[in-house]
Amino acid sequence: MRALLLDEPFKMSAGDKPEPVVGPDEALVRVHRIGICGSDVHAFRGHHPYVTYPRVLGHELGVEILEAPANPRGLKAGDKVCVEPILECGVCYPCRQGRYNCCTSIRVLGIHTDGGMTERMAVPVRRLHKPAVDLSYDELALCETLSIGVQAVKRARVETGEAVAVLGAGPIGLGILVAALARGARCLVSDPMPRNREIALAMGAHAVVDPTSEDLAGVCRDFGRGDGGVHAVIEAVGAAATIQQSIEIVAPTGRIVIVGISAEPVPIPINHLMRKEIEFLTTRNSCSAFDEVLQLFESHRDALGKMITDHHALEEGPAVIARLCDRRASGGVIKAVLHVD
Description:
Blueprint: E1 2-8, E2 11-16, E3 26-35, H1 38-45, E4 60-67, E5 80-83, E6 86-87, H2 93-96, E7 107-108, E8 120-124, E9 128-129, H3 137-156, E10 163-167, H4 171-182, E11 186-190, H5 194-202, E12 207-209, H6 216-223, E13 230-235, H7 240-249, E14 250-258, H8 270-276, E15 279-282, H9 290-299, H10 301-305, E16 308-313, H11 317-324, E17 335-339
Helix pairs in contact: 3-4, 3-9
């Protein structure tokens, strides 16, 4: 069957892959849509710390069940589902806490083990999620992206009426925006790209900021309505400068959640953290988020659909990922989706 194989950094090829071997608790699924994630781009460039080569990428998936064993949720052949791409051990300390997203032996499809840039694959039934409404395969492929936003907003304990700043309006930042809006927050989004800011406004952001030409700290003080800054900052860039900026723009006793991954050391002004008594948190993957994700799709389909800006055939994947390595040369792509049909 057809597959895209990342042979080594900057070398990706189309070829054949053996049919999957399906285990007793697994379903055989046909892949219809694959969202291209920033982690796929990092793997392509050789910068991803957990990817080994060769690797079949792809963990944002809209799939159809071809075969499934008997299961408590009644999932069956013909069902359209999304995939939660985490394979956990179930016995380590994080798993025993129910926080399997931090499993010490975690395997993520398309990262630690082969993913969905192929025609068919075997997936544990427990990691397939069926919506209550008929979502398209495009929408199902967005569910994993949105799960990262849901997890970040849960970690930030966002509440109704709070002022939230989202730094970065790529796919993850926009997913955070929707999840925070659904909790009743007022949301400000900061991004240097005009198209990203436009889409953030179209998706419901109350305000947008160009951090290259505007005073983000001053805007956040005003947006916090006298509380000295925003109540929560969720950083979805992964740059040292924006992580440090989070400390400046959050209100005293506020919360910061770091979603973006920075490969460089980040100097942290501990005196500022202590002076404000800031909660400084991180987040990884998602955990038990897909029920909330599917509910968000029922109520925010129009907004979430704006995230997909590009469609391509599977065979175009190498060229698309290579183009996404340069954000400014990418033409303002928010989310590119590959079609396997």
